[in-house]
Design goal:
There is one protein chain. The chain is elongated. It is α+β, with helices and mostly antiparallel strands. The chain has a six-stranded mixed sheet with strand order 3-4-2-1-12-11. The chain has two domains: 78 residues, no CATH class; 207 residues, 4-Layer Sandwich (Deoxyribonuclease I, Chain A). It starts with 10 loop residues before the first helix and ends with a strand.
Length: 306
Amino acid sequence: MVRKPRTGLRVRDVALGFFALVVAFVLVAHQAIPDVAGLVTVVESVLPWIGLLIPILLVLGLVGGVRAGLVALLVPAIAWTALFGPAMLPKTPGGAAQLSVVSQNIGASNANPCTAMTALAAQKADLVAVQELTDRASGCDALSNAYQYRYRSSSVRLWSRYPLRPSKPLMLGLDWARAFRTEVITPNGNVVIYAVHLPSARVDATVQRNRGLAELAELIRDESGKHVLVVGDLNTASTDRQMTAFAGLTDSQQAAGSGLGFTWPAGFPITRPDHLLTRGLRPVAAGTLPGNGSDHLAISGSFRFE
């Protein structure tokens, strides 16, 4: 008896197509998914890695003899490329920098924070921001020797090549001031600086962090300064739904960096909680620097005044 060839879609085709569309939905519409127990926050923090499911599904489809269902993989592939593909392209140099910045969470558990601070000083940036500065770093003089102007609020500190106007400590989602607002007087114009280290976030424990983000976003919306720079550890990635509150700011890595600029954990970075966000400053270069004992890589950015 001759078996007739099968026609139409098989169950495995339908299953593969279904999972492909789920991946596409998560990539494109993750903000519409209810954040139950903080799990979606985790997904959003590592959203680019969701794209790894596409080649996995492709291999499973080929091994399983699926053919028609493979077409559905084009949907998440196009979605991922549209969202993150531009970040992978080389950026055209944006002109000579008028302001350079480096920042790092040097890590409270860093056994030798002096190494990290010395490496930051060696960058010779105009501004250096540090988070998680503890008493262990009290004998580290590299930055203080290199920069005349500085301000500190709790474990957050800024060193500047240029004078600072009076600074204001800020309590963003915390009961103490682990952030501050200051203004840097540069030859090209004044820049309002928000140097921050927002509350940590864990699965099912994002309330403080979200409150800190909301409070910071409100301050920036009300900020009258023409040139604004937000620098530090926001404890969330740019793909987190909470970051939509900063829609009016430019992400330096997205605008001028090469790649996604992941910074944490330093040994194998999978997300980017460290940020340089600007308004009235055009990023011309951005990137990451070694961690030097910290669990965070350092970040850098160069800007022109608009």
